[in-house]
Design brief:
Its EC number is 2.1.1.193. By secondary structure, the chain is α/β, with parallel strands linked by helices. It has 2 domains: 80 residues, Hypothetical PUA domain-like, domain 1 (Ribosomal Protein L25, Chain P, Beta Barrel), CATH 2.40.240.20; 177 residues, Alpha/beta knot, CATH 3.40.1280. Strands 8, 9, 10, 11, 12, 13 and 14 form a 7-stranded parallel β-sheet that branches. The chain has a 5-stranded mixed β-sheet with strand order 1-5-6-7-4. Strand 9, helix 3 and strand 10 form a beta-alpha-beta unit. The radius of gyration is 20 Å and the shape is globular. The two termini are 13 Å apart.
Length: 276
């Protein structure tokens, strides 16, 4: 079984030193997991001496550790190995329309587990839910917490970015920018003629010397319960987006995004190797 993952908080300590991240913790050093994550490990999960755990910084750095001491909400870890996982060659982003209940949160949770690199809340024309004022801040905070928990569940070292909510005008502008920079925007639509499996994906950064390390982005756009309006589809396709269908069945807004992300990351080769 893979080791459980805990996200590092700024300001951990190592043999008397302090650091804002994990870069200063080589193999053999001591890392103290405290705060909310330390309490979760020591009190909630009741982890014990000798167990293996991973600590990640959310940006690809992973410390493989063994527990040396548990003192309530403070867990002392001996670092056995330091692993730097590479950044994605193609950034896969889920643009999820706001949906009633918790369907949008269900979508970003599963999308994070299968490999999304970022999520964008979209205030679509037919979204019943509206993010304004305090509700917008509280709702985005829930999305951040959902993505964080899903990252740990999936044992990921990279924490997907959660953007601020955008409306359709903002999404059209984002589409133009992504397409102009060599990326792709795919609008999932039941009436599309092309299947997602046949959509041309951007050339990965590692294979395109002209990008100077800048990874292209793929936006996957999923509408709300009532679907994407014809006006939205027209505006997005005029900006350079492509429409695609997943298959013969119409999926819920909570399901379509994760399924599409899973198919795309498989095409990009992320599921072909061994776990990090």
């Amino acid at each position: 079984m893979s080791a459980p993952v805990f996200l590092a908080e700024a300001g951990g300590s190592s043999d008397g030193a302090t650091a804002s991240g994990l870069a200063g913790y080589p193999a053999g050093s001591l890392y103290v997991l405290d705060g909310a994550e330390g309490r979760h490990a020591g009190v909630v999960q009741r982890r014990g001496v000798g167990e293996h755990v991973d600590v990640v910084d959310g940006d690809g750095l992973r410390l493989r550790c063994v527990i040396e001491l548990v003192e309530a909400a403070q867990v002392s870890l001996r670092v056995e190995e330091v692993v730097q996982e590479p950044a994605p060659d193609v950034v896969v982003t889920l643009v999820q329309a706001l949906a009633k209940g918790d369907r949008d949160e269900m979508a970003i949770e599963a999308a994070t587990e299968v490999g999304a690199d970022a999520v964008v809340p979209w205030q679509a024309e037919r979204s019943i839910v509206v993010w304004r004022g305090d509700r917008a801040a509280k709702s985005r905070a829930r999305w951040l917490a959902t993505v964080r928990a899903a990252t740990k569940q999936a044992r990921r070292a990279r924490l997907p970015r959660v953007d601020v909510a955008i409306d359709t005008r903002g999404l059209v502008e984002r589409t133009r920018e992504v397409v102009a920079s060599g990326g792709a925007v795919i609008v999932l639509h039941e009436e599309a003629s092309a299947p997602l499996a046949e959509v041309t994906l951007p050339v990965p950064a590692s294979e395109d010397g002209s990008r100077a390390g800048r990874a292209p982005e793929v936006l996957v756009v999923v509408g709300p319960e009532g679907g994407i309006s014809d006006r939205e589809v027209e505006a997005l396709t005029e900006a350079g987006a492509l429409t695609a269908r997943l298959g013969p069945h119409v999926l819920r807004t909570s399901t379509a995004g994760p399924v599409a992300i899973a198919l795309l990351v498989q095409r990009l080769g992320r599921w072909d190797g061994t776990p990090a």
